[in-house]
Amino acid sequence: MTALMDLPAVAALWEFIRYGLTGWGAGAIVLFALAATHLTIIGVTVYLHRCQAHRALELHPLISHPLRFWLWMTTGMVTKEWAAIHRKHHAKCETEEDPHSPQTRGIDKVLWQGAELYREAAADRELVERYGHGTPDDWIERRLYSRHSVLGVSLMLIVDVMLFGIAGAAVWAVQMAWIPFLAAGVINGIGHFWGYRNFKSPDTSTNILPWGILIGGEELHNNHHTFATSPKLSSKWYEFDIGWFYIRCLAALGLAKPRALPAEMFLDPSRNQIDADTVAAVISHKYELMAMLAKSFKKHARRAQFQPSVVEKWTELRKEFETMWSLRHLSVEQAVAGLQSWCNRAEASGIAALADFSKRIRMVSPRRTAIAV
């Protein structure tokens, strides 16, 4: 009799183990997992990356605190450690000191063991203290998020199992693997190994795809390395950065304050001289101009059979133009004189494409792009 009375309780327990509190089917659970992992991606790109690591925007506490809590639950990452590791990546990009460069550590290592590289770097307290300045240091960060990072992901496991039963463990596993693979592996690995480049930045960063949706816009990695402090990662008209879309929505609600975007390259036909303003504009757009020069060479090389002497001259002037902007000791006067000399020689080279590029340089003018909300 007692066993029979217990049957409903056993059946209810089994029902809970199978379906959790929600009772959702597989389709609904998959949609939840996609929404949850997308929120985690947005937390990484908007809060950790653009706000904390690069100070590209300010977030209202109504947004920053929930995102910080969600990341604690779904990744266990510490804000100071993440920001420090990423800042060192930019400071020491693709050298032996870069925490996760596929150029020095191999693509397989970064792609499949990106999380291990992150943990190794986070264990270096000198690195964290040197590069992690300015990140949250309030009571909850010191007493909970930083001290008990494992607690958050453990609570997430309990929540997932309570909601979905056995399937909740699979949802949790997906959540735990999402950032280590997509952010630590794909962006840090493939984003420096394969893709297309809008700008000739001094590293191998690439744009993996022109539509940054799955990884929150981080797919546009070459754009980011070119304009590291920009809150917007898309650059060309056909590119889309969903992280920037969310930032604009938050800004419209007064919950985010983005920094100004990089200045647009503006050509003023009335300008025909090299001065300090020209140098300032060229420095702002040096990677774009380098890419433009290389693209122009390829375009004209396809149209005509360049003579070896022409190729040699073009290569010489291209390398000189690139080298000019890597010399940090140049004064403004020296830069003006150097650019003037380069333009004169380009125009006297007899190569029409170089002459056209030189004329474009003379017309370039700085112009800031403000953000209208």
Q: Would you mind describing this structure in some detail?
A:
The protein is mainly alpha-helical and 373 residues long. The protein folds into two domains: 20-259, no CATH class; 264-368, no CATH class. It contains 17 helices and six strands. The strands form three sheets. The chain has a two-stranded antiparallel ribbon. A two-stranded parallel sheet has the order 2-3. Strands 5-6 form a two-stranded antiparallel ribbon. Helix 1 packs across helix 9 (149-164) and helix 4 (79-91) crosses helix 7 (125-131). The longest helix has 28 residues, at 26-53. The mean pLDDT is 87.
- Round the mean pLDDT to the nearest integer and report it: 87
Give the biggest beta sheet: 2 strands, antiparallel
Q: In terms of structural class, how would the helical and strand content be classed? A: mainly alpha
Order of helices and strands: HHEHHHHHHHHEHEHEEHHHHHE
Percent helix range: 55-70%
Number of strands: 6
Give unreliable regions as ranges.
none
Shape: elongated
Strand order of the largest sheet: 1-4
Provide the descriptors you would attach to this structure in a database record.
373 residues; 63% helix; two-stranded antiparallel sheet; 2 domains; 17 helices; mainly alpha
